[in-house]
Amino acid sequence: MAINIKTSRLRERLIVLTAIVAIVGGIVGTMTFTPVLAKTEPAHSKAVAVERASFADLIEAVSPAVVAVSTSGKAPSGQRLTPDFQLPPGSPFEEFFERFFGGPDFHGGQGNMPPRKFRAQGSGFIIDPAGTVITNHHVIKGAEEITVITDSGEEYQAELKGYDQKTDLAVLQIDTDEPLPYVEFGESDSARVGDWVIAIGNPFGLGGTATTGIISARGRDINAGPLDDFLQIDAPINRGNSGGPLFDANGKVIGVNTAIFTPNGGNVGIGFAIPSSMASNVIDQLMAKGYVDRGWLGVQIQGLTPDLAESLGLPAENGALIASVVADSPAEKAGLQAGDVILKFNGISIDKLRDLPRVVAETRADSEVEVEIWRDGRSRDLVVTVGESQSEEPLQLAAGDKPSQKRLGLVLAELDENTRSQYRVGQNTDGVLVIQVAPNSPAAEKGLRPGDVIKKVGNSAVSKPSEVIAEVKKASAQDRKSVLLLVERNGSDRFVAVGIA
Question: Each residue of 405-416: pLDDT tens digit?
Fold first, then answer.
């Protein structure tokens, strides 16, 4: 009996305890706990849940338009045995490497070893049914043969239609009787950090491979050139992915995969893509004429510090401060002066120093644009007629349908304070500066190299790239097979006859 009483009381206590737990649990379940330090609603409370759907249908739809790009050629004589970096002009090691590793000379010498062959692989994508292929310039640089391999395994010999070194883009053309699958560009400007992206390419030569990730950041400057404005992504990008497309979740191309940041040569989740907003404009010009026309303003600029902004009466540090104005330039003709701060160009705010070169370059020559400047403590508007850039201009020579097929292989720039300092050219030297020489080009065969100064073309003295172009065009029109250049290097002049390819 006692046992029954104890058991009964124990049962009653358990029932009461269970009821209390249930009540407390119900209260806890309905309570909202707010952190003591939280003053507002947490950011994630407004986030929209991301559905983890499969990308299989999208990848299946776009993969037929993604291609592998295989190239082969001869390494230029000046780069056969030298290390994988460029010596600055005038370096004391130049003579050492030229003597012991067989660098080029003015007579087209081939050094102490025969040219070696190279093969490279990358990626690309088709943008129209006629077979126009987009890839990176560095994928096809120096190539003598370019082969495009489709997702189905068909191989085509490709023709280089044009390239742009500043944005690292190139356009190829393959011929086929049948229309090809293709993809379209999307709007990279509307892509946000956190958006899903899919990269498809040919990593390590394995063939079509898809990887996914998100946009990690926008507007990245990786010191690749003056027009840097990359999308940063964490979708794995490896060697061989260069030139491949970056898709958004709708299957539109919003970027061209170009570079990675890596301490060990492999993917660490930091990749970079050229945004479609920049790429599409460049590609349109390359398709139309084989090269890119860029706007020119004619100013030297510097960034604003807090002290400079305060001394100028600027409310913020946004804008580009004009340090000097080039004589007879569009800027001078429009009334821009040293000490002006450019706040907006063609309606686009100049928030950072590097914004200005990019927006000017993207403006077509002869366009009239409004420029908002800060002068004498207030803003004012000027109208500028943008000029055509002559700096770092590929020497295009042919007329007609394929202007990119004839060139000397030179990229030229005017001699000014910056280029003289960078390439160590004396103040008494006048002419046009060579800043790049295309591999396997007529100029490369004759040993021209960055830092050389072209003083005359034929009997005509030159001081601008446009003057060199005009004289070479004149020689080409007279059916000459070569053009005579007077070239200065390290204070010594020499005549060089360069073939017109």
Answer: 346 888 888 888
Give the range among 89-93, 165-169, 327-331 with minimum mean pLDDT: 89-93
Q: Is 175 helix (H, G, I), strand (E, B) or coil?
A: coil
Two tokens, residue 134: 């987009």
Instruction: Give one DSSP letter per residue of 422-445, joined into a string.
Output: HHT--TT--SEEEEEE-TTSHHHH
Catalytic residues: 138, 168, 242
3-state secondary structure 1-23: CHHHHHHHHHHHHHHHHHHHHHH
Q: Encode burial over 404-415: b for 16+ CB neighbours within 10 A, e otherwise.
A: bbbbbbbbbbbb
Arch. (CATH architecture) of 188-289: Beta Barrel (2.40)
CA distance 382 to 334: 7
Per-residue pLDDT tens over the stretch 76-119 = 544 443 343 444 455 554 544 444 444 444 444 444 455 567 78
The stretches of 194-329 forming alpha helices (DSSP H) are 276-289, 306-311
- Return phi, psi of residue 147, to 5°: -115, 130
Instruction: Residue 64: count other Cβ atoms within 10 Å of its Cβ.
Output: 16
Distances (CA, A) of 477 to 243, 259, 474, 483: 36, 41, 5, 12
Nearest to 240 by CA among 280, 199, 286, 180: 199
Burial (0-12, 13-18, 19+ Cβ within 10 Å), 197: buried
The DSSP letter of residue 205 is G
- pTM for the structure as a whole: 0.59
Neighbours of 391 (CB within 10 A): 17
Strands 117-126 and 155-157: unpaired
CATH 2.30.42.10 fits 393-499, yes or no: yes
CB 352 within 8 A of CB 381: no
Q: Is the separation of the CB atoms in 395 and 469 below 8 Å? A: yes
Neighbour tally for 224: CB within 10 Å? 16
**Within 244-354, where are the H helices?**
276-289, 306-311, 330-334
Beta bridge partners of 253: 185, 247
Q: Which CATH number fits domain 295-388: 3.40.50.300, 2.30.42.10, 3.40.1010.10, 2.60.40.10?
A: 2.30.42.10
